[in-house]
Amino acid sequence: MLFNSLSFALFLPIVFFLYWFVAKREVRFQNIILLVSSYFFYACWDWRFLFLLIASTSLDYYTGLKIADASTKENKRFWLWLSITINLGFLGLFKYYNFFASSFIDALSAVGWKADLGSINIILPVGISFYTFHGLSYVIDLYKDKIKPEKDIINYSVFVCFFPLLVAGPIERATHLLPQIIKKREFDYSQALDGLKQILWGLFKKMVIADHCATYVNLIFKDASDYSGSTLVLGALFFSFQIYCDFSGYSDIALGTARLFGIELLRNFAFPYFSRDIAEFWRRWHISLSSWFRDYLYIPLGGSRGGKWISVRNMFIIFLVSGFWHGANWTFLAWGALHALYFMPLLLLNKNRNHIDIVAKGKHFPTINELFSMLSTFGLVVFGWIFFRAESLEHAIDYISGIFSFDLFSWPYFMGIKEAVITILFIVLLIVMEWMGREQEYAIKTMALRWRKPFRWCFYYVIVMLIFLFGSKSQEFIYFQF
Prior knowledge:
There is one protein chain. Helices cover 66% and strands 0% of the residues. It contains 17 helices and no strands. It has helices at 6-22, 27-43, 50-69, 73-110, 128-143, 153-161, 174-182, 189-222, 229-260, 278-284, 287-298, 308-326, 330-348, 368-389, 393-403, 417-436, 453-470. The radius of gyration is 23 Å and the shape is globular.
């Protein structure tokens, strides 16, 4: 069930009604409604994988109790590693088996040996990377005595399976979400209204910008050799806004939907394309994943405590694992390695935390230096996205080679470029609105509150009309494949 579908438009108000008007203030009844609704939401993708979700949830719930009850450190470690091994085993089987098998066969073929490990023709379960990381963070935090075990299976299951975050995050922590699930929740009109606004903004980004960019991206990347260097640059720019509006749009809808039920999820995006260096970009892009790898991989590896070269090693591991988390393809590893190279000079020169606050805070415009820093950082990010989008390393290299051709400075052209001008205008509108609202959690959070009521509602009406007029048919979100 897609957020941008008619079925979800029917599903959400039904759950909302049951949650607030039938369950009323009974927390356990509310949580049961959320759990049943979440299972139904997930089963709409493929009901067979619902059993895998339930199995993963039950595994972490049970091992969590065993970790809490263990009398020795060895017993705790056993149950921790049992959970980690089985969780990553499922993830590896469904997501990475064919990649490793084919890579191993290719390596043997390179030295003259032949092998056939076979392949598994399976569908990647939607959201497996996300709910696996939810469970792993829970058992790891239990092992480190950061939290107490949740003994109510309903509460714990809602933590893992809460439908707004189930298939594409944000990746939640038990320390943040479980207390909200357990406590009594009262309906807050202002919180719900804020949630509706964020949902509206997310739908605008997804349906009006991302889905239209996808059309041009698919066209240009599919036959890159047929286009000029300038057109290939335009294709890379379209993909940069496609993936941003697609994924941040999903996150906006997820956070806004959760607010309708009195729950606050972790923020996942903080205007990353206004970053002044790569370190700032990664503090603002897919925040829940970046912080997950920092807390559960980078710091356990030693973080920056062992000197510069240990820090560089750990940093490269984080970026490579992050790239591989996104998919079983060498292109994702290349994308991660490229960002590690971007990051390394900042780390070596102790400049990786130079930009903590949002750019030009309290000002209308950035300085010349800030503008140059944002544009250069954005350029590096766009270049990296080519590897992320390409079908293979050869495809990415050919695409980049095509950019640096004699027609780089020609006027870009492809079939449908006249229609694409409208999408470009919407991208400009997005940039302006996000710049104006960059100090808020999302662009339109408080933007219209300073206006008179007729103008404010006219503004919301225009966004709704743009969604209906330019929103294409329901398309899946990019991160569902991860």
